[in-house]
């Protein structure tokens, strides 16, 4: 069994699935509405939706004949938490770069 973070990253790895999530961030949509901008069959879009649903990134409701898809952002919290653990590394790198540039240009903070 794959852990939630791996499943989320796997689902996000495909640009079509990221585009679907971007569309759903504006509100719920039907499968046909989601499929409209893509040059692929409806079954292909449905397979992308299944991957997103299995990763918890979307949910599908049922209102009479209409099955709206909605963004399910909970797994993205795990991604944000994981990325945050590396923020210290990135910030430290930028701080060192800033200090190095000040040394080169003789800017403020140059000792």
Automatic annotation (TrEMBL):
Residues annotated as domain HTH arsR-type: 1-91
Cross-referenced InterPro entries: ArsR-like_HTH (IPR011991), HTH_ArsR_DNA-bd_dom (IPR001845), WH-like_DNA-bd_sf (IPR036388), WH_DNA-bd_sf (IPR036390)
Entry's Gene Ontology molecular function annotations: DNA-binding transcription factor activity
UniProt cross-references to CDD domains, sorted A to Z: HTH_ARSR (cd00090)
Pfam families according to UniProt: HTH_20
NCBIfam families xrefs: HTH_metalloreg
PANTHER family to which the protein is assigned, alphabetical: SLL0088 PROTEIN, TRANSCRIPTIONAL REGULATORY PROTEIN
Name of the protein described by the UniProt record: ArsR family transcriptional regulator
